Amino acid sequence: MIDIPYRGSGPYCYAHSLAMMLGSEAPGADVLETLTGSPFGMQLIGGSLPFFDAFGWDPDVGIEEALDVLGWRAETASEPDPDAAFARLVESLADGPVLLGPVEMGHLRHQPGMTGPIGADHFLVALAADDESVTAHDPQGYPYARIPRADFAAAWRAETVAYGKPHTMRTKFARHTVVDEEAAIVASLPRAIRRLSGEDDTGLPPGTLGNGDAALALADRIDDGGDPESRGLLIHFVVRLGARRTVDAAACLRRVGRDEAAAVLVTQARLIGSLQYDLVVEADARAAATLRTLAPTYEELRLALTSS
Questions:
Q1: Helix and strand tally (H, E) in the chain?
Q2: The pTM is what?
Q3: Fewer CB atoms near the end CB (10 Å): N or C, the chain?
Q4: DSSP assignment of 189-205, as one string?
Q5: 103: how many CB neighbours lie within 10 A of its CB?
Q6: Could you give the CA distance from residue 247 to residue 203 in angstroms, rounded to a whole number?
Q7: How many CB atoms are located within 10 Å of the residue 242 CB?
Q8: Tens digits of per-residue pLDDT, 231-268?
Q9: Could you give the 3-state DSSP secondary structure of residue 283?
Q10: Are 100 and 138 spatial neighbours (Cβ–Cβ below 8 Å)?
């Protein structure tokens, strides 16, 4: 099979938002996604919600880790009071753009079909705010989106997002050390190995499974018919994101000579990507078999990363 990097659309909201904040010195979104650590694993949160991202990981953690290995710092603030939070946002915008998130995507009604909370996290870059609305670059495909203040307030509370704090913003981005992209990729790998080893299991919802165990458990759930919520999450978001981030991570690892690990990631990307059709048309036996083939590749990836 031909193997080339993927280019196209995809839900890379925090990577694109972070790239906007770092400006002309930002790596590509493919590198930023890899540096967050997201591609290195799988988790089944609470035994029911599937994600092709690292065990014990979430985007808040990933943003901080990417900034760390790139030699950047930023100030993160979460204010429980909505009026105080909005005042802080307005004040911060006087000094430049503000990275916002997580927010609840379902309250962002400029996105067609969004009418209320759906439990989906999202990130934005705020550009202006007043009593009527907030203007933001929404990396879902909406530059200069105008968001009425009531909708924005509901989204920014993030009450239905499974991680993070309400009204979180990141400001005052500053580069303290010049780190080239290859060095940052190498510096991010010890965390990837740790998560593939299953060591980041503290503070997770009961029943959460990681990596191969998560893949096998999801296969069993699909064999049993699954449930509409999990299937919808997989076919609209999880599969396409998982396939993209693994193929991007493979390209990054090739840049630093980690060819064996890159080959495992390509295998994972092909398996994850092939799930899309089968899950949409409910070819569940084939989808479950694919997940069982995927399961041992997480240990293969850990071994490849530790041996090179």
A1: 12, 9
A2: 0.95
A3: N
A4: HHHHHHHHTT---TTPP
A5: 28
A6: 29
A7: 25
A8: 999 999 999 999 999 999 999 999 999 999 999 999 99
A9: coil
A10: no
